[in-house]
Design brief:
By secondary structure, the chain is of the alpha+beta class. It has one domain: Ribosomal Protein S5, domain 2. It has 4 helices and 10 strands. Strand 1 and strand 2 form a beta hairpin.
């Protein structure tokens, strides 16, 4: 459930032997993101997602990055998904779907998503096993898997074309933010949930 009948907010705290994360989400605030994940590249990507989704996101995270970034990025996805699920409650009044294409220099990425309650990720982004700075690009998919599974999102991410790894990943997170913003937006024409079944799960 959301924190109240009016506030579409969530606070998630997750502590394991590998990571410690506190994440706060407010779907109806556009306050600047406050992100410190201990992974500079993820700080940048989550800030972009928040800004282009027009929702407020605050994250404080630490993890076993001396090993690598995998556990922290995966758990950030889990926490983001749990926060979306909590903030949306029964999803009454939301658009439910979001779709957008984002160009970033030579790259073009399309993201389509549905808050159906039935998680599924299609990730058609063929990238080499490489790094942007110290960040493993394959961890983008790990973040999205965690978010989808815990938010109950059907998410399709398609790289139309592109060559620069930073541009491609930046376009993914900008498009993800924009599509999330569309999907969670409230519409007074929607009575209950946007489903003929009467529920989204």
């Amino acid at each position: 459930m959301a924190d109240s009948a009016m506030a579409r907010t969530a606070t998630i705290e997750r502590t394991t032997a590998e990571t410690r994360i506190e994440l706060k989400l407010d779907l109806d605030s556009s306050n600047p993101a406050q992100i410190d994940t201990s992974i500079g590249f993820m700080d940048h990507m989550l800030t972009l997602m928040s800004r282009h989704g027009m929702f407020s996101l605050a994250v404080q995270a630490s993890g076993d990055t001396r090993v690598d970034d995998h556990h922290t990025v995966e758990d950030l996805g889990i926490c983001a998904g749990e926060a979306l699920r909590q903030a949306l409650g029964d999803k009454a009044g939301i658009h439910r779907y979001g779709s957008t294409s984002i160009p970033m220099h030579e790259s073009l990425v399309r993201v389509d998503l549905d808050f159906s309650g039935r998680p599924h990720l299609v990730y058609r982004v063929e990238l080499p096993k490489a790094k942007v700075g110290t960040f493993d690009v394959e961890l983008v998919e790990e973040f999205l898997v965690g978010m989808c599974n815990h938010a109950g999102i059907n998410l399709h991410v398609n790289l139309e074309y592109g060559t620069n790894l930073h541009h491609i990943i930046e376009a993914i997170f900008k498009a993800l933010g924009r599509a999330l913003g569309q999907a969670v937006a409230l519409d007074p024409r929607v009575k209950g949930v946007m489903s003929t079944k009467g529920r989204l799960e």
